[in-house]
Design brief:
The protein is of the alpha/beta class. It has two domains: 100 residues, Rossmann fold (3-Layer(aba) Sandwich); 228 residues, Rossmann fold, CATH 3.40.50.10230. The chain has a six-stranded mixed sheet with strand order 5-10-9-8-6-7, sandwiched between helices. α13 runs parallel beside α14. The longest helix is centred in the middle third of the chain and has 20 residues.
């Protein structure tokens, strides 16, 4: 299967998965669609499901067409090319073409094999082995030998003259996660950010995230020893309803819903500039008072400006200047804060 060259501004995207009666099983696909939607590259991005969950295929197609898209890129969110891709999907695609003959439907490749899947698999395996090693020594962080060697290489190649131990933990973990040494110069900390973050975690504060991908990457094992809870609202049904009703992004509505949980919290935003802007609006209105904001949304539209607004806000912050950032960076920073709290740095 191949993808035609399309004008992305007039193209919609349908991420198509199997579906489950269990809501949590559908959330990852919904979250991926939300993250891609927030990037503003495509006219419309919607999830759709084969069965057991909504929206179904044709409902998702209806939504994309109503947005004004003139073409639809259909990506099967399946790892394997089984019967659903070979038989069910072609039938659904024909149904869509019959209902909307003027819409150009383009079928992309399914997930299949990709080198990034190996990285994700290794990360999950290392998480499990890390749990086994740390189970007998609460409060202490014992990195995997590969991780320790990676950090040694990072330090030897870059050097961190003048960096505090707290900053060093953050910078090394971000570079380790991204393999991007630019972050040594792009990361910026307000004077009290690291202390505020460590203190918040030690006190059992909430950790608020903008998307499920950030929540998924945060080490729940380390965090649980402090009694902290990670809260993410972007997939909540009421957030989706309010977003459609008000014409605002789900990220904006998720931050509004999170406001009552934000006082003294660590708030990590790795995806949407609109989430960061809404958070700062809540702070200005006196509706939220986080201990520290990890504000690292990524992208070409509004990300750099939102981070500049954070720097000028008076809130304790950790950010990345410019366009770079993302969920991986947000996760790395929060996990570094947890490690600092665990080791007493």
């Amino acid at each position: 299967m191949s993808v035609e060259v399309l004008d992305t501004k007039s193209a919609g995207v349908l991420l198509f998965g199997h579906g489950s009666r269990i809501k949590e099983a559908n959330d990852p696909l919904i979250d991926v669609a939300s993250v891609i939607r927030e990037k503003g590259i495509y006219k419309c991005v919607e999830p759709g499901f084969l069965e057991l969950a909504e929206p179904d295929f044709i409902t998702a197609v209806d939504t994309i067409v109503e947005s004004g898209a003139t073409s639809i890129i259909l990506m099967p969110y399946f790892l394997y090319t089984g019967i659903h891709l070979k038989k069910d999907l072609p039938k659904l695609l024909d149904t869509g073409k019959e209902k909307y003959p003027d819409i150009n439907f383009v079928l992309s490749s399914n997930l299949g094999f990709h080198p990034s899947l190996v990285d994700i698999t290794m990360e999950r395996l290392m998480e499990v082995s890390g749990r086994a090693r740390r189970a007998g020594a609460p409060g202490k962080y014992h990195p995997h030998p590969i991780e320790a060697e990676s950090f040694r290489i990072i330090e030897s190649e870059v050097g961190f003259n003048g960096a505090s131990p707290e900053e060093l933990t953050v910078v090394k973990r971000v570079i380790h996660a991204t393999a991007d040494f630019d972050y040594k110069d792009l990361l910026e900390f307000s004077p009290g950010a690291l202390e505020a973050g460590s203190r918040a975690i030690k006190s059992g504060a909430n950790v608020i995230t903008d998307v499920k991908m950030v929540e998924a990457g945060i080490s729940k094992l380390r965090l649980s020893s402090f009694g902290c809870k990670v809260r993410t609202f972007i997939s909540d049904k009421d957030v989706t309803i309010l977003s459609k009703k008000t014409g605002t992004t789900r990220s904006t509505q998720a931050m509004r819903k999170a406001a009552p949980y934000m006082d003294g919290a660590v708030v990590a935003i790795g995806n949407a500039p609109t989430a960061l802007r809404e958070l700062l609006s809540l702070v200005r209105e006196g509706k939220a008072s986080p201990a520290v904001v990890v504000g690292v949304p990524v992208g070409f539209v509004g990300a750099a400006e939102a981070k500049e607004e954070l720097v000028a806000s008076g809130v304790e912050y950790i950010t990345v200047r410019g366009r770079k950032g993302g969920s991986t960076v947000a996760v790395s920073i929060v996990n570094a804060l947890i490690i600092n709290a665990s080791t007493g740095v």
